[in-house]
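quick one, 289 residues, struct below
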Amino acid sequence: MKLATAPVNWNNADVTDYRPWIPYPALLDEMVTAGYNATEWGMNMERDAAKLLADLQQRNLQILGGFVGLELRNREKRDREILRALEIGRFFQSIGAPYLIAADSGDDRRRSEAGHVDPNGALTKDQWNSLATGLNDLAGELAPMGIKVVFHNHVGTYVETEPETARLLEETDPALVSWCLDCGHLAYGGGDTLRALEQYGNRVGYVHIKDVDGQVLQKSRENGWSFAQALKSYIFAPLGEGIARVPEVIDSLRQAGYTGWVVIEQDTTPDDPTKVAAKNRDYLEPFIK
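---
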């Protein structure tokens, strides 16, 4: 397995007001200072392919791909959303980034129910069909470009809980759509990552690793916090200090034969994000060797 970082460790689009953003290209310098040589692309990063590649090469950084929230569950919007994702995919192709990390876009209601989802508001059968069909179609279009679609289970969306994640994996084509496991989001959503990996470990094509503060999670459920409220209360803990069972997740991935990228994320922190990113890397490195 190989370690990487992501812009969200410094700049979080879900809570843009929680701290001043690190501007580009200083953001890349912070990644290097934290000891990383690979990252994902973020919306506040350079969009000119030649300039981005020059900036990355100067710092010996590799680009892996990026996160895209899509409203494929909406049949009326699905075709437009696929076209938007294809445009992003072509950009990723131009910078040599092989992964499009797709997620459901969620909405205000789902974000308000983060970690305490009302099952009565789940997707309908038709919405599930639209989502799965859209992902399969998108992946089929991107595959000839060398871009792999990996689907990210994500709090505040309609694929948050363990049963929702399982249904997404059951309804999509394994030859086209892989799973971007995020053990932090799965734990936040009430899921058991080890149990999910027992059944779907062979679907994992990409990994986001983060930990969850159990006490903050409890408060968020008791008080009905939104995703933004939980992020501002630092629901994601430094690796090894939470309830996501990170070492066991890594061991389970290894048993499933996973040898790909493991992207370390801590969406918010009260501390210096660069120091935290370095601390998380130091923690995880011994487990992936």
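The longest helix spans residues 125-142.
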